[in-house]
Design a protein that fits this description.
- Mean pLDDT is about 75; it is low at about 5-15.
- The protein is built from four helices and 17 strands.
- It is elongated.
- By secondary structure, it is mainly beta.
- It has helices at about 20-25, 30-35, 40-50, 50-60; strands spanning about 15, 15-20, 65-70, 85-90, 95-100, 105-110, 115-125, 130-135, 140-145, 160-170, 175-185, 190-195, 205-210, 225, 230-235, 240-245, 250.
- The strands form five sheets. It has a four-stranded antiparallel β-sheet with strand order 6-7-8-9, with no helix packed on it. A four-stranded antiparallel β-sheet has the order 10-11-12-13, with no helix packed on it.
């Protein structure tokens, strides 16, 4: 956007600095600093209050975006889904982009960094299990995660619940996915733990890992990933299980 027209400018120069140059300098400062600078003098206050400057500054300093996920088969009488899996909105609630589901029955499992994890139910011949995709809403790229269990867990079957979390390894920036399953072994309930690396390799697969020290909650929205560490609510009172995506090991409970 061009600087304000000469008609809207309070002065052509300010302290020996051409207004065009001042405009470009102030345009690059964060909004918090501009609030303080409005008190410098009347010309600066007039410039910083100019609607054209405010619009140009907003363009140069886009605020955080919100990703709102949906379940494509759930129905609300006032809102038809029409296959929308998620909306990308600004803080004012304006929808900037809509992402449609690849299939009818799909829902958002979790959102982390610049990816959205979705799930859908598929038939395995022995029952049903969830199939997952990672979507990058910014560029439209889709990564379908492998179906089936890790080689280390082939003797097991999918249980009634599955939980998935993903994030970036803090030291390398590599994306990894943690998947947990309910299952049974010798009539005892247990949870399988598997990790998948999004490294672009054609032979990437789920890798079986040690189960969590205690049974954790596999419901949606029971986990969060911060700086490469997965935090999952445990069924133990006041206990949170932690998994390190870099070492691919469980850490001490919180």
């Amino acid at each position: 956007m061009e600087p304000p027209s000469a008609r809207s400018r309070p002065d052509q120069r300010d302290g020996g600095l051409p207004l065009d140059a001042l405009y470009e300098i102030l345009l690059r400062l964060p909004a918090k600093e501009l609030c303080r600078l409005r008190a410098v003098c009347r010309p600066w206050r007039s410039l910083l209050s100019d609607p054209q400057f405010i619009a140009a500054h907003a363009t140069h300093h886009p605020g955080p975006l919100i990703v709102l996920g949906y379940h494509t088969v759930r129905y609300h009488p006032d809102h038809r889904n029409e296959g929308i899996i998620c909306d990308i909105m600004d803080l004012s609630g304006c929808v900037l982009k809509r992402v449609r589901a690849a299939v009818g029955n799909e829902w958002v499992m979790s959102i982390q960094a610049d990816h959205v994890c979705t799930a859908r139910m598929i038939s395995t011949g022995k029952g049903y299990c969830e199939s997952y995709r990672l979507l990058n809403p910014a560029n439209g790229l889709v990564c379908a995660l492998p179906e089936g269990l890790a080689e280390e867990h082939v003797e097991h079957e999918f249980g009634s619940q599955t939980s998935i979390a993903f994030g970036q390894v803090a030291s390398t920036g590599e994306y990894k996915v943690l998947r947990l399953h309910d299952t049974e072994s010798n009539q005892h309930s247990m949870q399988l733990c598997e990790v998948f690396s999004l490294d672009g390799s054609s032979n990437a697969r789920w890798r079986g890992k040690k189960p969590p020290p205690q049974i954790v909650m596999l419901d949606r929205w029971k986990s969060v990933v911060i700086d490469g560490i997965v935090y999952i609510l445990s069924y133990l009172p006041d206990c949170v299980a932690t998994f390190d995506l870099e070492t691919e090991e469980w850490r001490q409970n919180l």
